[in-house]
From TrEMBL:
This is (S)-3-amino-2-methylpropionate transaminase. Belongs to the class-III pyridoxal-phosphate-dependent aminotransferase family. Its cofactor is pyridoxal 5'-phosphate. The keyword Transferase applies. Keywords: Aminotransferase, Pyridoxal phosphate, Transferase. It holds the Pfam family Aminotran_3. SUPFAM superfamilies: PLP-dependent transferases. It catalyses: (S)-3-amino-2-methylpropanoate + 2-oxoglutarate = 2-methyl-3-oxopropanoate + L-glutamate; 4-aminobutanoate + 2-oxoglutarate = succinate semialdehyde + L-glutamate. Pathway: Amino-acid degradation; 4-aminobutanoate degradation. PROSITE patterns: AA_TRANSFER_CLASS_3. Its EC number is 2.6.1.19, 2.6.1.22. It is an enzyme of class 2 (transferase). One of its GO terms (molecular function) is identical protein binding.
């Protein structure tokens, strides 16, 4: 075949809906750092949205994945079992709360969320799921139906999955209350929902994040989680905790819900940090509950991929050997304290909050009536200004008015200090002290 200069060259381009939060194109990355194709080094406080838990390309995770690639890349585990999945299940058994001894694997957070909902409905024979305002659980149609972290996640493709009901989240800052008042209110409203509209014996599950992620980086108060656990037990409702973003050490405990003493969920959903960047997710539940799913109702071709599973096994080993859960706690305290020192200079910063290596900075302004309202323009301006300072950040929150910082679990004291310095410089550029 001959080609001439006149022959049309077929071209393709990325979907125009994929808006990039930063202009950076990564060339290579290591630890907390990304080298862009522009030749610049960026301190990465986005970690692929909380995924690269052991830092970019941790040498042990790289070696484990490379070795597994040379042995077997894929053997669908309902057809032919493979060693990495057996090892991963054994390792997860050591970090999961006692009793959650059965694990099912998928590829993404959304798929695992769907698996948990299917399981809860099959186990209870009940239709309704209660979610909490500002929760994010994914973008597949069912997961989007469970998501209330912003209308953009579900508008335009109705009808959504039925049987989903939203209860308030104790968002103390938004209401202008202290945490206890917000928790009392949210629990009262939940009880009201359970008596006025959604009968407990028609309710399959409560679904909540230990820290609202895309909904604004709001730690769920321990007393609220305890209140949900108590009501779930009382009514035979399955208590599902979505640890996709907050799990795997990120909050300074292995699981985010462990900040609520004595609270053990019926189902834990995990993904993101599980394999340092390889796509794999899981749900864990007591065997008795897990066995209520009908054979064939759960699963998918790529779920529990061998290379991803090998990377997950090594991720857990690195987290344990390098003390990364404790590092997340200590470096998280440093990050939050630093942000709280910076914040008073900027009146548009209404709230600084977080836990472990999840920090949210909420931007607000006042409207004509003098009420405090979300200021997404300020948050976006600051997030974009951080790139210019060599720091990568993201926004979140229903109004997009929260900047979130999600460093890797391996982040060092110096890197947090540098990140805070660059963040303060970006605030000056974007807001000029306003
Ligand atoms: N649950 C939570 C708490 C999440 O943060 C996310 C992703 N941001 C999901 C579920 C969905 O995960 P995925 O994008 O892998 O489908």
């Amino acid at each position: 075949m001959t080609t001439t200069a006149e022959t049309a060259v077929p071209t393709a381009h990325l979907s125009p809906i994929l808006k990039q939060a930063t202009p950076v194109v990564v060339d290579h990355a290591q630890g907390s750092w990304i080298r862009g194709t522009d030749g610049n080094d960026y301190l990465d406080f986005t970690t692929g949205i909380g995924v690269t838990s052991t830092g970019h390309c941790h040498p042990r995770v790289v070696a484990a994945a490379q070795a597994q690639c040379a042995k077997v890349i894929h053997a669908q585990y309902t057809t032919v079992m493979h060693q990495p999945l057996l090892e991963l299940t054994e390792k997860l058994g050591r970090v999961l709360p006692p009793g959650l001894d059965s694990v099912f694997y998928a590829n993404s957070g959304s798929e695992a969320v769907e698996a948990s909902i299917r399981l809860a409905r099959m186990a209870t024979g009940r239709p309704n799921i209660i979610v909490f305002q500002g929760g994010f659980h994914g973008r597949t149609v069912a997961a989007a139906s469970l998501t209330t972290a912003g209308t953009k996640f579900s508008a335009g493709f109705s009808p959504l999955m039925s049987g989903v009901h939203m209860a308030p989240f104790p968002y103390a800052f938004r209401y202008g209350w202290d945490t206890d008042t917000a928790v009392d209110f949210a629990l009262r409203e939940l009880d009201y929902l359970l008596t006025s509209r959604v009968a407990p014996n028609d309710t399959a599950a409560f679904l909540i994040e230990p820290v609202l992620g895309d909904g604004g980086y709001l730690p769920t108060p321990p007393r609220f989680l305890a209140g949900l656990r108590e009501r779930a037990t009382r009514h035979g409702i399955v208590f599902i905790v979505d640890e996709v973003q907050a799990g795997f050490g990120r909050t300074g405990k292995f699981w985010g819900h462990q900040h609520a003493d004595g609270v053990v969920p019926d189902i834990i959903i995990t993904a993101k940090g599980l394999a340092s960047g390889f796509p794999i997710s899981a749900i864990a539940a007591p065997t008795e509950l897990m066995s209520k799913a009908w054979p064939g109702s759960q699963g998918g071709t790529y779920g529990g991929n061998a290379v991803a599973a090998a990377a997950a096994v090594e991720t857990i080993a690195v987290i344990e050997d390098e003390g990364l859960v404790e590092n997340a706690r200590v470096r998280g305290e440093q990050m939050l304290a630093g942000l709280r020192e910076i914040a008073p200079r900027f009146p548009r910063i209404g709230d600084v909050r977080g836990i472990g290596l999840m920090a949210g900075i909420e931007f607000v302004t006042t409207d004509a009536s003098g009420a405090t309202v979300p200021d997404s323009a300020a948050a976006i301006a600051v997030q974009q200004a951080t790139t210019g300072q060599g720091l990568l950040t993201l926004t979140c929150g229903p109004g997009g008015n929260v900047v979130r910082l999600i460093p890797a679990l391996v982040v060092t004291e110096d890197e947090i200090r540098l990140g805070l310095h660059r963040f303060a410089a970006a605030l000056d550029v974007a807001l000029g002290g306003a």
